[in-house]
Amino acid sequence: xxxxxxxxxxxxxxxxxxxxxxxxxxxxxxxxxxxxxxxxxxxxxxxxxxxxxxxxxxxxxxxxxxxxxxxxxxxxxxxxxxxxxxxxxxxxxxxxxxxxxxxxxxxxxxxxxxxxxxxxxxxxxxxxxxxxxxxxxxxxxxxxxxxxxxxxxxxxxxxxxxxx
Length: 164
Known about the structure:
By secondary structure, the chain is mainly α. It has a domain at 2-112. It has helices spanning 2-34, 41-145, 148-160. Helix 1 packs antiparallel against helix 2 (41-145). Mean pLDDT is 80; it is low at 33-38. Residues 46-73 form a coiled coil. Keywords: Coiled coil.
């Protein structure tokens, strides 16, 4: 902000010096020609140039004030945008944390379901092995009780679908 004000002062000073040198050069050349005709015209011209210079300086001040107002407005807008961006960043961070938390919970749940499935599968396999062993033992015991002819009779019953 200070650099723009400094730049405006430099521009204003250059314009004023240019106008004064222009007025002086013009009044010297014009004043000598018309001095014989009108002695007050030189002062009248300088007065008009000075009036114009004052108006120009006033316009420069008005423009400078407008620029200051716009600069303040832009600064306020930039601050507002920065605040909005900070709020969005905080919101995004919170959402990412929430998603991370949900992901961890899901992973924990999946792991617990897998562990339960492995336990159930192990229990099922163990139970199945026990049933198979029990069945083998029962078959071995019943085979000793039955005679070979009895086995053939039982098989023929199943094949024919009828009892003796």
